[in-house]
Amino acid sequence: MTEIDRMLAANEAWLDEFPGDLPVAPAREVAVVACMDSRMPLFGMLGLDVGDAHVIRNAGGVVTEDTLRSLAISQHVLGSRAVVLVHHTDCGLNKATDQEVADLVERTTGHRPPWVARTFTDVDADVRESIRLIRETPYLLSTEVRGTVYDVASGRLREVEDPAAPHLSEARGGSLQQGQEQGS
Ligand SMILES: [Zn+2]
């Protein structure tokens, strides 16, 4: 039995938990852009239920053309507006340079990949850069873009301060002023 056979068999157990058919649009109008890391169970660690959010994952949780494609469809076709980025400690993309990744692939297969791996050394800086790339994409409709780093050793999520986003502070100030009406 391969791992995939086990997964196909496990679907039988899932049927007991299956919540039933739900609307295609994510109920909480949020999209999560996250690393593919196997230690981040995004729904559990963010308090999300089935049907609540779009989850866009790749190596590093970096903002690529395809991340932006998915966000555009999430927002324009399916109504999401908030975007939260989830990077994490001990990421595979901290462990090599772009050149080393390309060299490794080429050494093993004889083919140099056409893409850049997008490795990084400073996870907070990469989160801020990702926030900037999403904010500055003119065809998106994001109302709120925030970034976090998940500590795989403790399970704790830390928000990355984004000094380059004064308009976000203003937006948060505004929502605080309305907080009494909204009870938040
Ligand atoms: Zn990672």
Automatic annotation (TrEMBL):
Segments of skewed composition (Low complexity): 173-184
Details of cofactor binding: Binds 1 zinc ion per subunit.
Keywords for the protein's UniProt record, in alphabetical order: Metal-binding, Zinc
Keyword Metal-binding recorded: yes
Cofactor(s) this protein cannot do without: Zn(2+)
Record-linked SUPFAM superfamilies: beta-carbonic anhydrase, cab
Domain of life: Bacteria
Binding site for Zn(2+): 35, 37, 88, 91
Chain segments carrying region Disordered: 161-184
InterPro entries on file: Carbonic_anhydrase (IPR001765), Carbonic_anhydrase_sf (IPR036874)
GO function terms (MF aspect): carbonate dehydratase activity; zinc ion binding
EC number per UniProt: 4.2.1.1
Catalyzed reactions: hydrogencarbonate + H(+) = CO2 + H2O
Top EC category: lyase
Family: Belongs to the beta-class carbonic anhydrase family.
Entry function: Catalyzes the reversible hydration of carbon dioxide to form bicarbonate.
Protein name as catalogued: carbonic anhydrase
Species for this entry: Modestobacter caceresii
Lineage, broadest ranks: Bacteria, Bacillati, Actinomycetota, Actinomycetes, Geodermatophilales
